[in-house]
TrEMBL record:
The gene is leuB. Mg(2+) binds at residues 222, 246, 250. It comes from Pseudarthrobacter sulfonivorans. The record marks 138, 189 as: Important for catalysis. Binds 1 Mg(2+) or Mn(2+) ion per subunit. Its cofactor is Mn(2+); Mg(2+). GO terms for molecular function: 3-isopropylmalate dehydrogenase activity; magnesium ion binding; NAD binding. It comes from the Bacteria. It catalyses: (2R,3S)-3-isopropylmalate + NAD(+) = 4-methyl-2-oxopentanoate + CO2 + NADH. This is 3-isopropylmalate dehydrogenase. GO terms for cellular component: cytoplasm.
Length: 347
C-alpha cells in the first residue's frame, strides 16, 4: 500500500525536525512494504513574506486529497515587525484546523525515565489531553468597537455547540476505555463560565452512561494547574476546551522535561479530511539553522500519524526506538540529524 503524505515543513526549526521525522518514517514503513509518497508545501511566515499568501484555497483543496499531513512549525521571530501579529496563526494554522475539521487535538504527556522533570516528585506521568480543536474562544467570534481609543470595547466570545462538545467528549471516553486506568477528567471553569461549562458537564455525564467501565471526575482549570504540578500521576485522560487545552498542554510538556519531546495530532476522527500531526513546539527562531533542535517531538508526531492511519506495527517500532534513545541520553549535545540517525538506526 501507499501513504499519500502532505508535508508542511514551515519556518525556523520546522524543516530541520521534519527532515528527521521523514527519515525515520520512511524507514519504518518501508520495512512493512509500504510506499511513502510525499508532496511538500511551502507555507508559513517566510512564504507569506515572499508571496503574501497564507493558505490559498487551491492549496487547501490539494491538501484535502492527501491521507495525512505532517507539519513542522510556522511563525517568525517574536518582535519581527514585518509580519502582523496573528496573521499566520489565524489565516494559516487555525484555518487548516477548522477547514479540515480537526476536532480532536490530541496531546500525550509521558515522562521517560532518564529525562529530567522540573518537579521534585513527578511520580509516573502518563496521560493524554484531548483538547477540542474547532470551537471555543479561538473561532474569531468577536470584534472591537472604538478601536485604539480609551473607550475601546473588545469581545472574543467562546463558541460551544452540543454537537462539537459531544463528539470530542465521546472521543475522550473511547480513548480512556482503551487505556489501562480508564479515567476521564473534565477540565473547565463551570462555576463562573456557567453556560459553556454546564454544557460540557452535562455532556460528560450523558456520554459517561455509554462507558460504564470508565470513571470520571471534574476539575476547575485553575485547580488542574495545581494538580498537574503537585500530583500529575492522578491524570489519565483530560478532556477540555480549545483555550484551556492550549495552556494546559504547554504545562504538561514542561513537567515531562520539555518541549523537544511533546507531540500532537490534529485529528478528524470522522475521516472526512486528512488529519495533521505536528510537534507542540514552534519554529524556535533562537536556535533555527544550527542543528540544535531536538527532532523527537516531530518523530513522535509521526507515530501518532501512523496510529491514525492504522499502521500500528510501524508506529510501535518507532516508539520503541524513541524510548530506547531517550532512555540512554546522557545530556551530551547531539545534532538534530544525529538524533534522527540514531533513532532510524535503532528501528
Ligand atoms: P517555540 O516553541 O518556538 O520556542 C520556545 C523555546 O523552546 C525556545 O527557546 C526554543 O529554542 C525552544 N525549543 C522549541 N522547540 C525545540 C526543540 N525541538 N528542541 C530544542 N529546543 C526547542 O516558541 P516561541 O519562541 O514562543 O515561538 C516562536 C515562533 O513559533 C513564533 O512565531 C510562534 O508564533 C510560533 N509557534 C508556532 C507554533 C506552531 O506552528 N504550531 C506553536 C508555537 C509557536
Ligand atoms: Mg499552544
Amino acid at each position: 500500500s501507499t501513504i499519500n503524505l502532505a508535508v508542511i515543513p514551515g519556518d525556523g526549526i520546522g524543516p530541520e525536525v521534519i527532515a528527521e521525522a521523514l527519515k525515520v518514517l520512511e524507514k519504518a514503513v518501508a520495512a512493512e512494504g509500504v510506499v511513502l509518497e510525499q508532496t511538500h508545501y511551502q507555507l508559513g511566515a517566510e512564504h507569506w513574506l515572499a508571496t503574501g499568501e497564507t493558505l490559498p484555497d487551491e492549496v487547501l483543496a490539494d491538501l484535502r486529497t492527501r491521507d495525512a499531513i505532517l507539519f513542522g512549525a510556522v511563525g517568525a521571530a517574536p518582535g519581527d515587525t514585518r509580519i502582523p501579529s496573528g496573521i499566520i496563526e489565524r489565516e494559516m494554522l487555525l484555518k487548516l484546523r477548522f477547514s479540515l475539521d480537526h476536532y480532536v487535538n490530541l496531546r500525550p504527556s509521558r515522562l521517560y525515565g532518564t529525562v529530567g522533570s522540573p518537579l521534585a516528585n513527578p511520580g509516573t506521568i502518563d496521560f493524554i489531553v484531548v483538547r477540542e480543536g474547532t470551537e471555543g474562544p479561538y473561532v474569531g467570534n468577536g470584534g472591537s468597537l472604538r478601536t485604539g481609543t480609551p473607550h475601546e470595547v473588545a469581545t472574543e466570545v467562546s463558541l460551544n455547540t452540543a454537537y462539537g462538545v459531544e463528539r470530542v467528549v465521546r472521543d475522550a471516553f473511547r480513548r480512556a476505555s482503551a487505556r489501562e486506568r480508564k479515567h476521564v477528567t473534565l477540565v473547565h471553569k463551570h462555576n463562573v463560565l456557567v453556560y459553556a461549562g454546564h454544557l460540557w458537564k452535562r455532556t460528560v455525564e450523558a456520554v459517561a452512561q455509554e462507558f460504564p467501565e470508565v470513571t470520571h471526575d471534574y476539575l476547575h482549570v485553575d485547580a488542574a494547574t495545581i494538580f498537574m504540578v503537585t500530583d500529575p500521576s492522578r491524570f489519565d485522560v483530560i478532556v477540555t476546551d480549545n483555550l484551556f487545552g492550549d495552556i494546559l498542554t504547554d504545562l504538561a510538556a514542561a513537567i515531562t522535561g520539555g518541549i523537544g519531546l511533546a507531540a500532537s495530532g490534529n485529528i478528524n476522527m470522522d475521516r472526512t479530511a486528512p488529519s495533521m500531526f505536528e510537534p507542540v513546539h514552534g519554529s524556535a527562531p533562537d536556535i533555527a539553522g544550527q542543528q540544535k533542535a531536538d527532532p523527537t517531538a516531530a518523530i513522535l508526531s509521526a507515530v501518532l500519524l501512523l496510529d491514525h492511519l492504522g499502521y500500528t506495527a510501524a508506529a510501535r517500532r518507532i516508539e520503541a526506538a524513541v524510548i530506547a534513545d531517550v532512555e540512554t541520553r546522557d545530556g551530551g549535545a547531539r545534532s538534530t540529524s544525529a538524533v534522527g540517525d540514531a533513532i532510524a538506526a535503532a528501528l
